[in-house]
Design brief:
- With 474 residues, this protein is mainly β.
- It has helices at 2-20, 127-130, 163-169, 261-265, and strands spanning 48-57, 60-65, 73-77, 81-85, 97-98, 118-123, 132-138, 146-152, 171-176, 185-190, 196-200, 222-226, 275-278, 285-288, 295-299, 305-311, 326-327, 330-331, 350-353, 372-378, 386-391, 396-402, 407-414, 419-424, 430-434, 451-458.
- The strands form 7 sheets. The chain has a 4-stranded antiparallel sheet, with no helix packed on it. Strands 2-3-4-5 form a 4-stranded antiparallel sheet, with no helix packed on it. It has a 4-stranded antiparallel sheet with strand order 6-7-8-9.
- The termini are far apart.
Length: 474
C-alpha cells in the first residue's frame, strides 16, 4: 500500500510539474502527421464575420494600406487600376493609379488570361516621407513579363497619381521574363527588416516542366528578397548581405583541398542572390505577422492539395519547400491515396485537400477548396497570430494557428465569395477582396461581374446595420 501511495504521489508531482511547463514555442513540423489538416480547433474557438466595406470593383485581386495615418485602403483591380477607399467606406471617383492609359498600346498591363494583370501594391515603410509605392503586374509591352515598378506620389495630389506624373516618376525595379501565361506568383510585401519580398511562381504550364522550383539559377518558384533603399543610383536594387546565396554565385579559383565540407556546401555556382527561399509552386500571396515578424506563405497547389508554409522571424532563409518533388506532404505526381516518396525540404504547417483529394477519389463534401489565397494575420478577436486564408472556389476562410503544442487549421466560415487576396488594415484588422473571375470562363478584367472589399470582424462585434457576407448555411 505504501509503495502504491508513493507511486501515486510521484505521478501527481510529475503531472503537476509538466503542467507548469510553458507551452512549446512555434516550430516547423518535423513529420507529416504534425501538419495541420481541416477539422482542427484554434484556441478559444474564435468566430468571425465578413462585413462589407465597399463594392463595385472590376476584378479586385489585391488590397493594401499605406500605414500613413490616413486610414485609406487601396484596392487593386486586375485591369490595371488602383482605387482608394476612404476609412468611412467611400470609393474615390478617380483611380489612385491608372496603368491602362500610359503606353502607346493604351494599357501597360497584360490581362489576356485570368492569372495575368495588376496584382499587388506595397507601400514603402517610409511612404509618408518619400511617397514611394511599388506595384507588381504582367506587362503588355514586355510580352507578359513580370514587372516590379516604383512610383512616387505627388504631394500636391495625394489621392491621384496622374498618367503624366506616373510616367515621370516610374522606376523599373525588376523585369522577369515569363515563358507561360500562368503561375506568376505576383505578391509583394515589405518585411519587418525593411526589405522587399516578392512571391514568384514556377512560371507556368502545370507540373513545373522547367524544374524551376528546385533550380537556384532561376528566379521562378521562389521567394525573393531585395533591398530597394540602400542602392546605388545606377542600380534598381541591391542584394541584402544576409540573403542565403548573396555571395554563393561568385566565380572563384578551383581548389581541391584545404576547404572543409561545410565550406564546399556554401558554394552554389549560378545561384541567384535574390533568392530567399525556394521549392514553391505559386506563392501568389504571403503575409508577415506584424506582432512577431513571422512569415506565412499561401502556396497555390496543383490538382489535389493546397499548402500553407510558415517561416519564423529568426529564419536565415534558404528553406526548400519541396516543389516539385512534393505538394504539401504528398507526392508529386500523385497517383493514389497511398503514394510513397521521400519528403523533400521543409514541411508546411497546414494543408487542405481539393474536392478530389487524389486521382479517382470520391469527392469530398466538406473541408475542401481549390486555390489558397492569403488574407492576413489576425491578432484580435481571440486570435493570436492566426493566418486567415480564403479559398477561391469554395468560399471558405480557414484559420491556421498554434495551439501551444501543435498547428491547427480551423474552418472559420464558408461564404459565397470567390476570394482573391487580402491584407492587414492600419488598425490590424484583416481585409479581403473577392472577384467573380472564373478560371476557364473569364469574361475579361473589365467585363466580369463586380467584386467587393470586406473586413473580417469578430462575430459578436458586427456594427449595427452593416452588410455581412452570407454563409453557405443560411
Amino acid at each position: 500500500m505504501r509503495m502504491r501511495s508513493l507511486v501515486t504521489a510521484s505521478t501527481a508531482v510529475i503531472a503537476l510539474a509538466l503542467g507548469a511547463l510553458p507551452a512549446v514555442s512555434q516550430e516547423v513540423p518535423k513529420t507529416a502527421d504534425q501538419v495541420a489538416r481541416p477539422g482542427g480547433k484554434l484556441p478559444g474557438d474564435p468566430k468571425i464575420a465578413l462585413v462589407k466595406v465597399a463594392d463595385g470593383f472590376l476584378d479586385p485581386v489585391g488590397v493594401a494600406s499605406a500605414f500613413d495615418g490616413s486610414g485609406r485602403m487601396f484596392v487593386v483591380e486586375r485591369q490595371g487600376k488602383i482605387k482608394i477607399v476612404t476609412k468611412d467606406g467611400k470609393v474615390n471617383d478617380k483611380p489612385f493609379l491608372d496603368l491602362t492609359k500610359n503606353s502607346p498600346l493604351g494599357s501597360e498591363v497584360q490581362t489576356g488570361f485570368v492569372e495575368q494583370g495588376l496584382w499587388a501594391v506595397a507601400f514603402d515603410p517610409k511612404f509618408k516621407e518619400n511617397g514611394h509605392f511599388y506595384v507588381s503586374y504582367s506587362s503588355l509591352p514586355f510580352n507578359g513579363a513580370h514587372i516590379i515598378a516604383r512610383y512616387t506620389v505627388d504631394k500636391a495630389s495625394p489621392d491621384v497619381v496622374t498618367v503624366e506624373h506616373a510616367n515621370k516618376t516610374v522606376k523599373v525595379i525588376m523585369n522577369i521574363p515569363q515563358p507561360y501565361y500562368n503561375h506568376y506568383g505576383g505578391g509583394i510585401q515589405f518585411g519587418p527588416d525593411g526589405f522587399l519580398y516578392i512571391g514568384k511562381g514556377d512560371a507556368g504550364w502545370e507540373g513545373d516542366p522547367l524544374d524551376a522550383g528546385q533550380t537556384k539559377s532561376m528566379l521562378w518558384g521562389k521567394m525573393l528578397r531585395i533591398d530597394v533603399h540602400n542602392t546605388p543610383e545606377d542600380r534598381a536594387y541591391s542584394i541584402p548581405k544576409t540573403n542565403p546565396w548573396a555571395g554563393a554565385y561568385q566565380d572563384r579559383m578551383m581548389t581541391l583541398f584545404g576547404i572543409t565540407e561545410e565550406g564546399f556546401s556554401k558554394i552554389h555556382m549560378g545561384a541567384r542572390p535574390e533568392i530567399w527561399s525556394y521549392g514553391l509552386r505559386n506563392p501568389y500571396s504571403f503575409h508577415f505577422n506584424k506582432k512577431s515578424g513571422d512569415l506565412f506563405i499561401a502556396d497555390v497547389g496543383q490538382n489535389h492539395l493546397e499548402e500553407i508554409d510558415w517561416q519564423p522571424a529568426s529564419s536565415k532563409g534558404g528553406e526548400n519547400y519541396g516543389w516539385k518533388h512534393n505538394m504539401g506532404t504528398k507526392c508529386h505526381p500523385m497517383t493514389g491515396a497511398d503514394d510513397k516518396c521521400p519528403q523533400v525540404g521543409v514541411l508546411p504547417v497546414a494543408e487542405y485537400p481539393h474536392q478530389e483529394p487524389y486521382p479517382g477519389a470520391e469527392k469530398l463534401k466538406d473541408g475542401w477548396g481549390c486555390s489558397v489565397m492569403g488574407l492576413g494575420v489576425a491578432n484580435y478577436g481571440g486570435m493570436d497570430g492566426v493566418y486567415l486564408t480564403g479559398d477561391w472556389c469554395s468560399g471558405r476562410i480557414f484559420g491556421t494557428g498554434w495551439d501551444g503544442k501543435k498547428w491547427q487549421i480551423q474552418e472559420m466560415i464558408q461564404t459565397a465569395q470567390q476570394f482573391t487576396a487580402g491584407n492587414n488594415d492600419e488598425d490590424g484588422s484583416v481585409l479581403a477582396v473577392n472577384c467573380n473571375c472564373f478560371y476557364l470562363d473569364d469574361k475579361g478584367a473589365a467585363a466580369n461581374p463586380p467584386g467587393s472589399l470586406w473586413r473580417v470582424v469578430p462575430a459578436d462585434q458586427v456594427p449595427a446595420g452593416a452588410e455581412v457576407a452570407k454563409t453557405k448555411k443560411n
